[in-house]
Amino acid sequence: MAKRKIANVPKLDLRKFSPEALRKIESIKNVAVLIVADDEEALEAFGEIEVSNVATIRYIPRDREFKEMNGTFILTGNMVQKDTEYFLNGICIVCDLPKDLEISLSFNGILLIQKSSNVIITCANGLSFYDDFEADMIKIFSNTVTVSPDFVNEAKPGTYIIAGNSITVSNDVTADMLREKGIRFVAGNIISCGKHLVGYVENNSKVGNCIEIIKGKKS
């Protein structure tokens, strides 16, 4: 009997497969998230499968829940469950978790975690960091944003400006404006700003690619 080939699926949870069923799989390819039971027999059988072009492999006990979340969201205490493994894809903010609650997660994208949160990162791809903040300090943009003087003036002190792709800071924004509000930046790709802002941005940002200097009136 020919073995089974599995391909082109976003998520594949193999924990429902017995070791005998796993041995009937010849190959797995083009899968975004692959979940394998974290036990000796399953791992031995899984080792016989040809695996290619799989973005993330997670080894999770059979009795543990797995929840995938995609997009842009803030993960708080009233959203999480005990004994659950989370896979976060996109821009995620973790905050306001109960002190006695520990969560495990893997992520792809941007992850900002409140310092008081008890989080175990099991697999990471992208930008992740801990900081002190409140949920209402976060301004998220899935793609791009331009930060103007009006934006800065209306922002709360300590605001995080987070963009999945790029942030452009207008040339009529000054370092004193940003410093007064304690603005912080996170961009998955590029932050663009005038030369007069480079020092501030370099010291108050996380960026996946680079900080780019744009031409302007200020020097």
Chain-wise SSE layout:
Layout: E1 4-13, H1 19-22, E2 25-37, H2 40-46, E3 50-60, E4 65-75, E5 84-94, E6 102-114, E7 118-131, E8 138-141, E9 144-147, H3 149-154, E10 160-163, E11 166-169, H4 175-181, E12 184-187, E13 190-194, H5 198-203, E14 205-207, E15 210-214
Structure description:
The chain is mainly beta and 219 residues long. The chain is built from 5 helices and 15 strands. It has helices spanning 19-22, 40-46, 149-154, 175-181, 198-203; strands at 4-13, 25-37, 50-60, 65-75, 84-94, 102-114, 118-131, 138-141, 144-147, 160-163, 166-169, 184-187, 190-194, 205-207, 210-214. Strands 4-5-6-7 form a 4-stranded parallel beta sheet, with no helix packed on it. Strands 8-10-12-14 form a 4-stranded parallel beta sheet. The model has no long low-confidence stretch (mean pLDDT 93).
Q: Count the helices. How many?
A: 5
Spatial strand arrangement across the major sheet: 4-5-6-7
Write down the Rg: 21 Å
Question: In whole angstroms, how far apart are the ends?
Answer: 72 Å
Major sheet: 4 strands, parallel
- Give the helices and strands as they follow along the chain: EHEHEEEEEEEHEEHEEHEE
Shape: elongated
User: Strand content of the residues, in percent?
Assistant: over 45%
Overall average pLDDT:
93
What structural category arises from helix and sheet content?
mainly beta
Low-confidence stretches: none
Helix content: 10-25%
Report the strand count. Answer: 15
